From TrEMBL, chains A, B, C, D:
GO terms for biological process: glycolytic process. The keyword Zinc-finger does not apply. It comes from Cellulomonas rhizosphaerae. This is Glucokinase. It comes from the Bacteria. GO terms for cellular component: cytoplasm.
Amino acid sequence: MHAIGVDIGGTKIAAGVVDDDGQILAQTRRETEPDDAASIDRAIADVYAELSADHKISAIGLAAAGFVAADRSGVLFAPNIAWRDYPLRDNVAALIDDKVTIVVENDANAAGWAEFRFGAAQDVDDMLTLTVGTGLGGAIVTNGELLRGAWGVASEIGHMRVVPGGHYCGCGHEGCWEQYTSGSALVRDAQAAAITAPERAARILELAGGSAEKIAGPHVTKAAVEGDPLAVELLAELGRWLGEGAASATALLDPALIVVGGGVAAAGDLLLVPARKAFSEQLSGRGHRPEATFVVAAMGNDAGMVGAADLARL
Amino acid sequence: MHAIGVDIGGTKIAAGVVDDDGQILAQTRRETEPDDAASIDRAIADVYAELSADHKISAIGLAAAGFVAADRSGVLFAPNIAWRDYPLRDNVAALIDDKVTIVVENDANAAGWAEFRFGAAQDVDDMLTLTVGTGLGGAIVTNGELLRGAWGVASEIGHMRVVPGGHYCGCGHEGCWEQYTSGSALVRDAQAAAITAPERAARILELAGGSAEKIAGPHVTKAAVEGDPLAVELLAELGRWLGEGAASATALLDPALIVVGGGVAAAGDLLLVPARKAFSEQLSGRGHRPEATFVVAAMGNDAGMVGAADLARL
Amino acid sequence: MHAIGVDIGGTKIAAGVVDDDGQILAQTRRETEPDDAASIDRAIADVYAELSADHKISAIGLAAAGFVAADRSGVLFAPNIAWRDYPLRDNVAALIDDKVTIVVENDANAAGWAEFRFGAAQDVDDMLTLTVGTGLGGAIVTNGELLRGAWGVASEIGHMRVVPGGHYCGCGHEGCWEQYTSGSALVRDAQAAAITAPERAARILELAGGSAEKIAGPHVTKAAVEGDPLAVELLAELGRWLGEGAASATALLDPALIVVGGGVAAAGDLLLVPARKAFSEQLSGRGHRPEATFVVAAMGNDAGMVGAADLARL
Amino acid sequence: MHAIGVDIGGTKIAAGVVDDDGQILAQTRRETEPDDAASIDRAIADVYAELSADHKISAIGLAAAGFVAADRSGVLFAPNIAWRDYPLRDNVAALIDDKVTIVVENDANAAGWAEFRFGAAQDVDDMLTLTVGTGLGGAIVTNGELLRGAWGVASEIGHMRVVPGGHYCGCGHEGCWEQYTSGSALVRDAQAAAITAPERAARILELAGGSAEKIAGPHVTKAAVEGDPLAVELLAELGRWLGEGAASATALLDPALIVVGGGVAAAGDLLLVPARKAFSEQLSGRGHRPEATFVVAAMGNDAGMVGAADLARL
């Protein structure tokens, strides 16, 4: 059965028709206004109209960045879109004449589910996805099921505290994991190095056009791929925190596989080799238990769309 | 259907016939030798013989402190009993003539399951049990199922790291949660206070017979119940770590209920009030999500036995 | 003998004629351009001309925010003024015809010295001044002498690390004490509370005109003086870090007195009571040693001017 | 002028006649009883009688492990000897007929002073000695004078807190620097590695006779000198904490030289190279200031004796 998956970003939505094997048969996009929630409702109805013209659609999955209600009907809170206890499902349904199942899913959960069903984690029943982008998102599959929690807001893994009194986080707390393992952390660490060791930061600064304020994650990754020692160190430090945090999460979850996605995952082994080392060194009970494997995500940018479509079908 | 639950301790086993409602119909015990694994096998067969004489038994659940194999057939590793990759199920089965299902479960998981099925967490589908005893054990139920992980060693929650470079743990790592939230932590904190503030520690020391080395958890709890300011502070500090760690676990798991058991839970509100406060203050997304409730465990010392019996029936 | 003290700020200088008892006999000011170091040289010569017209002056002390050379001839580096290895003494001397001693001193050292000579610390030989302003500055007097260090850059006490992996600091490192004990820290903590507990932050937000971005230290202090619970807590937390850091500094320095100055010191006991408690609780060897006393600075905003003048005379 | 220096240990005292150049002209020893303070008084009088028979002595310096009174007359508190507010100077004087100056000094201060006057730090005016033995001791010289503090208990540098909530310390606090940089820390880290990575710890365990409980600092150092990867890592980690803590101390003290002594200093560059790297990386204001040099102590085990004698002469 075909379903539509919609990945809802701050300023645009991407939608696709997804078949039972996770293949995308058709795609389209719309620009939206993050401050105008109704514009997003209309854009979703619009892409449905376009895509359903040529495909028979049984369900629509909406991947949303935010706290999603446990009954998958809407969004409790979103950091970047004007959603507060927003009944997204019903609002969209009211704009669509067809009888079609509509569900809302957290975007990181949707992306993780795509890895589980069609990507890097197809062969396991218990996995953890860590999406290292601007922040750090997560998805947990245990015994073949997506772990949603009592109120649908599980897997907010980036807000596990790893340092008491640590870096300030946008959530208002200190020491959240995503302040140590994310593209934002990478950028701030590089900017700090530009102050404490400007000579070592020369290549990163050059790639950023000479300005510490303009350093972005890809500058660091590019420098590291070239072999720049500081950039390699910065990614290794990020990887260390990735592995150490994953060891804590593993104490709770015991996954077989840890899938690392997001923009920073493009650094590949520069990130994963230090992550695996730190994970092993910090894993409780090591030597008396099998150890999870770290792999890079396989689904790319379409993961949220594909996962949301698949979850809508279930 | 009746099942036997066996709680296997270091020096004794306690066994009981448990009915479908979690009631214990009969009980018995045996002393055992932790260094002689075969003596435990025999003792289990022996209690089965005794209890099955008067009750029809369909299954035996064995609650073991250690890493339990994912197929529930044995123990990978135990800290206090001479089990290393030990085929406990088959060894016991070989000593029993009847055809009866035998399963091995982690003891904290068994106890948590008892709370979920018959105790404090009967009304929820997603819960976290935290057993604050000598160490800190845990059990996770998500969507009505026990979370066992890929290899059966999930919920080793006491080894989530809460302080990088923190207290040494017997597991060989630093900063494990159980070094901040356990009876052992309470004792060490009281002993430290006896050095830095002996005048404030007078009552606790008195209860311990005058010797800092002899301070035990119940001395602190008793002094706190009497209103001793230092003891109240020490339990509040333990409660703070309990709540803060639970907030991190909640970022991953989103439970509806957090059940606090173990010997230290006897302190009741002296522990739980500070725990709830710290939990709320550290909970990510607070205000945009429902919050888990903290309650004291209801099943007492029989929780492991009852939970193991019930899990064996499933 | 009379000396002139000059307090050099980013956009203005304040100068005064100071007598042997630390009394200011005359004062004047000039506006300056932080990006134009020569404008500051000229302004200093200018205030000298004005003040020396009516007073016989033997020395000029220049209080500068930055790393001051060990021979007190200039500034190695300043964060807010365009000084890099800048020969401030000789540049000013070249603009003055009279033969007069000119020395450059770090501004926090100058202010601390004023407390030692004429203010809160007149009666001790060993003291530590902690200036809790935008950042955290310090001055150390040991055995009656200002501790300058091998290269003149001692007492950069705000950059003692108190939390590994802690808050980012403008210096490029993590976990510097001034990120936990300063007006900036107070503001950020209040802003974080406005996210995690907006209802509790209502009064502080009201004082800030309704906007978290506009919260300033005095809003928190005012709310605390009124009895607002959150504001009281925030100052207590700042005080706790103040006391705990001071206990670490005391392990090295063993001062008789700790003088707390700077804008945040206006909070008085709301800051100092928690600071004293934390200091006592963290002080190593407590009970076997006398303990330093915490007091509020007595010299006010003129401390830097008075101290610089006095140090120039020595 | 000749002075006698006495290094008072728990179970023995070592005494020597020291000339103006720090040379030891004669030596002797006595066994003592740590629980019998009077036996130490008598032993000191006894070594004085022996040594003064052949040498003209003007002063006696007593190096004591403990908090020494500011007037250098006795010991406020000692961890390993039965001294509590003990008038050591007067007690010894009462047993000696000659008129001779007697002063008591903290042993780490005495050893550091010897390095300053005759050893590794002869050429500087501002230095910090770090004695990495069982614990972590320190001595501070600033502007050519020993920093004693208001009450004589400065330089208890091992109790600067480096990790909030960190390792328990015998002083009753958590996270003291000496729990990260000392022989005891090295041993515990090696024992922890024997749990988490027994295969990597094989060589260290072999040197310790196969038992983790018997691991001592020299086993780790020896293995590291042989090139054992784990031992090298453990010393590097110790060196990292040494350098990072020294960077914090330098923010306060700005020494020209950091002299590393004590048993663990025998590891030489295995300790110092990582220490220097960490120091540079953590030094606030790096690039805008000269940096302290790290060197190994030069005076060996006689440092306390020589320093105490020299300080008695002043």
